[in-house]
Write a structure and sequence with these properties.
Length: about 325
């Protein structure tokens, strides 16, 4: 049977209607998917912001806890001075004991009976003596770098295994950054002046690699003022590099001896140093005023590290610097 023009017109209309319906369904599905994705993204952003706020408050609490520990140690030192005893800082004190990873989920849960349903939060941290390291501030000031300070930094860079010329690079860039601008400087010189770093991590502005900074971190620091090295907390590499005529063996004897009996006054260090080594009070001491607070928070799948610099001024604990530490990216071989 042959199709009439009317039948053909009806089939064409049905095909058009079906195509229109499919297009509408596709558009509705696309719009619905977009709305679901945007809702999911908003939920993820809100969850991340909530986790960031929680982490910030918890790490702030850990910093306050560290400041409280330092304040109690300062009170103990003050009481010792009143009794006529010498106040010293050493690795056998409470502040030097690191905090092992502890679970905080119980404290974060709103209902203690449902503590297991709270977020998995773990906190760990430690306090380090910032004056156990060589202070780069000794390289600044004066028209030229004191020869002894230059040799100290050169010894430390060699001990750390950094590339040759690292000490010269740090000295040149650091003095350039803190030299200040004079009227004789050309306009182009201001753009070439390095930024003033506030901590060791910012030495990367000078062209130091991340590996070189990690190697130097246990040995050097950058504090607001020139400070002596605490012989009760410094590693042997710093002690050996600090004085002319010093060697690692003598520094190791001091490190071993202070574990059982810390130095109570600077003059006692002469018992471990070779003859002829001059120990000046502006280069070495047995107490400290600057400390580094390390805090790590593991909140569910997120890990946040924070490092703060605290200055102890009598019973006042001043936070001079606070920075988030970005963990290194692991690369597959």
């Amino acid at each position: 049977m042959m199709k009439t023009p009317r039948d053909a017109n009806r089939q064409s209309q049905r095909g058009a209607a079906l195509l229109t319906a499919m297009i509408i369904v596709t558009l509705v599905a696309t719009l619905a998917s977009a709305m679901v994705w945007r809702q999911y993204r908003a939920v993820q952003i809100e969850a991340a912001e909530r986790a960031r706020a929680q982490a910030s408050w918890i790490l702030q609490g850990s910093l306050d806890w560290a400041r409280l520990i330092l304040r109690e140690d300062a009170r103990a030192d003050r009481d010792a001075l009143r009794r006529g005893e010498q106040a010293v800082d050493h690795l056998g004190e409470v502040w030097a004991v690191p905090l092992a990873e502890a679970r905080l989920s119980t404290f974060l849960a709103a209902d203690k009976s449902n503590a297991d349903e709270g977020p998995e939060a773990f906190l760990s941290g430690s306090l380090e003596d910032a004056q156990s390291r060589y202070n780069l501030r000794h390289l600044l000031g004066g028209k030229v770098v004191p020869p002894l300070e230059q040799k100290v930094l050169e010894r430390l860079t060699v001990s750390a295994g950094t590339p040759p010329g690292t000490a010269a690079l740090i000295i040149a860039k650091l003095r350039r950054a803190y030299a200040g601008k004079s009227e004789s400087d050309a306009p182009g010189d201001a753009a070439a002046t390095p930024l003033q770093p506030r901590n060791i991590d910012q030495l990367s502005w000078f062209g130091l690699s991340a590996d070189a900074i990690d190697r130097l971190r246990p040995l050097i620091t950058l504090l607001p003022i020139a400070t002596p090295v605490n012989l009760n907390t410094a590693p042997r590499e710093v002690i050996a590099a600090l004085f002319d005529g010093m060697d690692l063996a003598s520094a190791e004897r001091l490190v071993q001896a202070r574990q059982s009996k810390p130095l109570t006054k600077l003059e006692e260090s002469a018992n471990f140093f070779p003859n002829g080594v001059v120990v000046a009070a502006d280069r070495a001491s047995v107490n400290s005023a600057f400390f580094i607070v390390n805090g790590r928070l593991r909140l569910e799948e997120r890990v946040l590290d924070e490092r703060s610099l605290v200055q102890r001024r009598n019973l006042e604990m001043l936070v001079l610097d606070r920075q988030r530490v970005v963990p290194p990216i692991e690369t597959k071989p």
